[in-house]
Amino acid sequence: MELTFKEFLQGGKEQLARAGFAEVEAEHLLAHTLGISRMDLHNPLTVENALSAIGDLTIAEETYWKLLDRRCAHEPLQYLTGVAYFRHLELKVGPGVLVPRPESELLVEAVLTHLEKLPGAVSVVDLGSGSGALALAIATEAPRTHVIAVEKSADAIHWLKENVSFIDEKVRILESDVATALEGVKCDVVIANPPYIPDSEVLPKDVATHEPAVALFGGPDGMRAPRLFISAAARLLKPGGFLAIEHHETQAAEVGDVLTVEFEDILLHKDLNGRPRFTTAVRR
Ligand code: GLN
């Protein structure tokens, strides 16, 4: 007997729950299969139209069960749907690029607050831009900015280009290593979410088996990349320029120490769970 749409959804939820995943992900995967929004799953007319557009219900069913199996094998939900939500943006993501995390949204907030105090056009460099989440959030929420997104990974650049072309073509993409990027250039603001996880840290299976190690691991103590990013920021920023850098919750003191050499007004910020997750500072 053919399953009804509701049974479809319920079956997916049960499969996910048995494997230890959140039931709500079945809604995301079914909505993605049907090409509609998650909210529209509750609108019988939209569902009916989507199903008849696909034509054969068994095709939709097969796609959906395959996606559920892949999710149960720990592929990140956002890689399966191809979309990650970050602030007001819908970013395209997939294998080869880090899925933007909600805690980075707060770093954007702190940068926007700083930008409000600056008159006229402001130059912003995003070091290690990945999907472009930080760069595009700043560019769209602070239209007076000129944003350059620096990224070295060709796989990540594929997604960065997609996102820049769909969201804000004014963001400039620079394929370069952070250490040597934009030599001779000075800017007002640097933002960065470097790879900062200590190499030995055991990550959740979704992250460890599917997300790019180059975007995650920052050397034996995780600080190799943050040090390099901070020195690039010191080189790029004008005196009085502003840096916002994300880090591991265990790195607050070390990041602060590294910053004291060339920065002042060093301020540690916590995420919504109260963990110290990023630091802002002003170039001397
Ligand atoms: N916040 C990410 C995580 O916990 C790591 C991001 C990074 O290393 N920049 O998986």
What structural keywords apply?
284 residues, Rossmann fold, 2 domains, 7-stranded mixed sheet, 9 strands, 44% helix, elongated, binds glutamine
Description:
With 284 residues, this protein is of the alpha/beta class. The chain folds into two domains: 2-73, no CATH class; 97-283, Rossmann fold (3-Layer(aba) Sandwich). Helix content is 44%, strand content 20%. It is built from twelve helices and nine strands. The strands form two sheets. It has a seven-stranded mixed β-sheet, with helices on both faces. A hairpin with a 5-residue loop joins strand 8 and strand 9 (276-283). Helix 2 (24-34) packs across helix 4 (57-72). The longest helix is centred in the first third of the chain and has 16 residues, at 57-72. The radius of gyration is 21 Å and the shape is elongated. The mean pLDDT is 96. The protein binds glutamine. Glutamine binds next to loops.
